[in-house]
Structure formats: structure tokens, C-alpha cells
């Protein structure tokens, strides 16, 4: 069904996120006929450009970030026709009446859903919401969208949540974690709970351990200003990786509703074993890339990317976590993420225990443990590793084989980008795939001891050459437990 008419206001409308992700996502929905006619998109930024100037910038962005085959001139014009631009600064009161005027300029002004998307630095979340309240545009049909990271640590996250919460009720607040909008991440829930064969095995009796990897080949690019202040733990682990962990570990909700899934995820976050300083030293590894070769090309060091002499910010994290509950007690969850690694892959691997009894002693090859690889990107799909008999008249020879499910070949459909799904959920008012306040704060509570310990530790991040799987210590973290990272071939 068609979503309601909406005025979609993007703060940071000329920024990287808006141009690279948000506007292309809105374009795709529009292309498929999912934006009602009167939908308007209002870009807000400090740039002194008019509507035409903004349209030109967005046109260039669409040409760059939308797949050429999907760039239809008529649809491009339609989207550009919806655009407005307002030059505003959250730090001053000037010009805000213009936004008020624009939003009120509708035949039946209160009918439209008002989305306020804060694609700006977290320090501006609170002040922007306060200005919106002052100019009187926050009504029952208003929603605010916040990008992660929400704050810099638990204390600042609470402050942001309080400030935003003094203007918007929790059901009007949408905290985006775009990983939750990815098709393959949503499919994880379906795989687990719409099939019978996995769930009986999905526990400490049969699962040896779980690995979650989000590796990127890109460096920090032009985002150094933000990134150097954040680091990989805040940028990726506190949100994306912990959310993936939650979806793997959570109990089945009774149905997929606005709160149930979030309730179950929260319980997982609360069950994560708190880390002592000694645990942090033993079970976490932080790294930073130095110059190297990525996919055959020279890549500079992180410090050079920043244009700084040195920095102690981590661009890589590996750690071992444990979910202390009945289902998962004793099962390690190994997480790792980094920039400038050897390849781009986001993947969850569930490694099952060895069969209880070795029936084919002496057989060549030997049975290896079953593993389920859930590939989030780039090749969305699933692979179940099994052991099979190699055909032949002689003795029994065991061979590792796999059952492969590829989304691309199974479904003759384009997988929408995460933001397409999530932006429409905001317009429709469906918060299921967004992080609730208590989830965000529970995730910050769990990473807090790591942040604290790293800050006081004199040991800088371990260096790893760009284009490699991270520092050796990350491999050692598993080897110590008699395990190893499962690399996809
Ligand atoms: C963002 C991080 O949230 O996720 C980036 O801020 C990271 O640093 C990006 O590159 C990764 O997203 P994706 O969808 O490309 O895996």
C-alpha cells in the first residue's frame, strides 16, 4: 500500500549521507511509484544555495550513486521537482521561520507526515529538535530520525536521548541502524523462525561458537574528522555488530511486532557478560592500518589519510563476547570489524560442534564441523557446510561440500538498499527495525569498559598493513581457544 503524504526534511541535506544514500533511496521508492504525489523533500544545510542549486547537486548525486540502468529521466525530474532547500544553522535562530512557512504551506497542512531526518553531528540532535519545537512544527504526525552514533558514550547518549525526548515521544523517535534494513539481515529472522530445522540446534548444546565479521576495504576517506573522534568500536561495534549479535542470539518473539523484537534484542544486550579491565586486555584487540596494498592498489596509512602525524584511534576491533543466559552459556561470540582489510564482506558464521561420535575413523579426509555462513554482503545468501562421501568404489572418503543459497540467483529481483526500506518504515510509523532508547543505552553500557580501558592503556592500537585481515593478535584471540576465523573463499 501507498505510504502517507510526507514532508521529508533532511538536516545535512548536502552532506555525504544525504547525497550518497538518502536521496538515492527516495529516488528508488519514487521510481517504483511509492511516493504520493504531494510528497516534498526539503534539504536543510548551511550552504547558501536556492532550490535550483540544490536540484543541481542532487541531480549530480543521483547520476553518480544510482545504477545507470535505473536512472529514468522522467523519474529523476519527478524527484527533483519535489526538492526544496533552506539555508539554516542549528546554532542560530535565524531563518527557521522559513521552515515553518514551508511546512504550513499545504492545503491541509496537518495531513502530511513530517519527517525530520538528522543527518548531522550528534551534538546538533538536541538543539535541532528544540528549534523545531520553538517554531511549532512538531505535531502528532511528526517523526525524528537519528543516525548513529547516538552520542559518544553512555552519558552523552543519555543526554541526546533526553534532549530529543523532551520534544518527541519515544514512538516518534527513529534511531537508524541501517544494518537492520539490509535484506539479508531481515532474512536472518525468517531463516531462524520460519523453519523448523535450525532452532533445535541453535544453542550451546550444538553450537560451538559464532563469528561475526564486517570487513571493509575502504579507508576513512573524507570522514576523518568524524571517524578519528569515534573509532571502530563506536562506529561499528556498538551498533551494527551488536545488532547482528542480537538477531543471532535472541529468543523467538511471539510475533514480529513493534516492540516484541526490540524487547528480545534488549534482553540479549543485557545478558552480555560485562567485561572487567582484565577481560578487556585479554579478549579485545584494537588495530590501526598502516600503508599497504588493497586490491592491488597502494593505500596510505590511517594517519596519512587523516593528514595527521599520528593518532591512537582504532580502525579495527576484534573481541570475544559471551551471552550469559540458558541458551548460550559458554558459547563465545567472536566479533571483528575493520577498515582497509583484505576484502569487503559482512558475514555471520555459526560453527556447530563436531558430530558426537566419529563413525568413520580411518576415513580419508575426516568429518569437519558443520558451519552455517550467512552472508550479509556483498553476495547475499547462505551456505551450509556439510561432509559428504566422495563418489567412488573404494573405501569411504569424506569431502567437505556445501549447500548454497544465493539471493541473486534464487530471486529474480533487485534487493532494495537498506535505506529504502527504513525510510518508508519511518513514513509509515513502523519502528520495528529501529533501535529503541533502552537498546542503544544497553549497548553503550556494554562497550563502556572497553572504551575506558583502552583510554587508560598506554599500549597503542596494533598496526596492520592495509589489505590484510588485521593484526595477528586477532587471529591469536581465536587460536588461543583452538579455533580460527572462517574465511570465505
Ligand atoms: C556506517 C559506518 O555506519 O557503516 C561506516 O559509519 C561504514 O564507517 C558503514 O563504512 C558500512 O556500511 P555498509 O552498509 O557499507 O556495510
Automatic annotation (TrEMBL):
<dbReference type="Pfam" id="PF02781">
    <property type="entry name" value="G6PD_C"/>
</dbReference>
<feature type="binding site">
    <location>
        <position position="216"/>
    </location>
    <ligand>
        <name>substrate</name>
    </ligand>
</feature>
<keyword id="KW-0119">Carbohydrate metabolism</keyword>
<feature type="binding site">
    <location>
        <position position="148"/>
    </location>
    <ligand>
        <name>NADP(+)</name>
    </ligand>
</feature>
<dbReference type="InterPro" id="IPR022674">
    <property type="entry name" value="G6P_DH_NAD-bd"/>
</dbReference>
<dbReference type="Pfam" id="PF00479">
    <property type="entry name" value="G6PD_N"/>
</dbReference>
<dbReference type="InterPro" id="IPR022675">
    <property type="entry name" value="G6P_DH_C"/>
</dbReference>
<dbReference type="GO" id="GO:0004345">
    <property type="term" value="F:glucose-6-phosphate dehydrogenase activity"/>
</dbReference>
<feature type="binding site">
    <location>
        <position position="339"/>
    </location>
    <ligand>
        <name>substrate</name>
    </ligand>
</feature>
<comment type="function">
    <text>Catalyzes the oxidation of glucose 6-phosphate to 6-phosphogluconolactone.</text>
</comment>
<dbReference type="InterPro" id="IPR019796">
    <property type="entry name" value="G6P_DH_AS"/>
</dbReference>
<feature type="binding site">
    <location>
        <position position="178"/>
    </location>
    <ligand>
        <name>substrate</name>
    </ligand>
</feature>
<dbReference type="GO" id="GO:0050661">
    <property type="term" value="F:NADP binding"/>
</dbReference>
<comment type="pathway">
    <text>Carbohydrate degradation; pentose phosphate pathway; D-ribulose 5-phosphate from D-glucose 6-phosphate (oxidative stage): step 1/3.</text>
</comment>
<feature type="domain" description="Glucose-6-phosphate dehydrogenase C-terminal">
    <location>
        <begin position="189"/>
        <end position="486"/>
    </location>
</feature>
<keyword id="KW-0560">Oxidoreductase</keyword>
<feature type="binding site">
    <location>
        <position position="235"/>
    </location>
    <ligand>
        <name>substrate</name>
    </ligand>
</feature>
<dbReference type="InterPro" id="IPR001282">
    <property type="entry name" value="G6P_DH"/>
</dbReference>
<dbReference type="GO" id="GO:0005829">
    <property type="term" value="C:cytosol"/>
</dbReference>
<protein>
    <recommendedName>
        <fullName>Glucose-6-phosphate 1-dehydrogenase</fullName>
        <ecNumber>1.1.1.49</ecNumber>
    </recommendedName>
</protein>
<keyword id="KW-0521">NADP</keyword>
<dbReference type="GO" id="GO:0006006">
    <property type="term" value="P:glucose metabolic process"/>
</dbReference>
<feature type="binding site">
    <location>
        <position position="182"/>
    </location>
    <ligand>
        <name>substrate</name>
    </ligand>
</feature>
<feature type="domain" description="Glucose-6-phosphate dehydrogenase NAD-binding">
    <location>
        <begin position="10"/>
        <end position="187"/>
    </location>
</feature>
<keyword id="KW-0313">Glucose metabolism</keyword>
<comment type="similarity">
    <text>Belongs to the glucose-6-phosphate dehydrogenase family.</text>
</comment>
<feature type="active site" description="Proton acceptor">
    <location>
        <position position="240"/>
    </location>
</feature>
<dbReference type="GO" id="GO:0009051">
    <property type="term" value="P:pentose-phosphate shunt, oxidative branch"/>
</dbReference>
<feature type="binding site">
    <location>
        <position position="46"/>
    </location>
    <ligand>
        <name>NADP(+)</name>
    </ligand>
</feature>
<dbReference type="InterPro" id="IPR036291">
    <property type="entry name" value="NAD(P)-bd_dom_sf"/>
</dbReference>
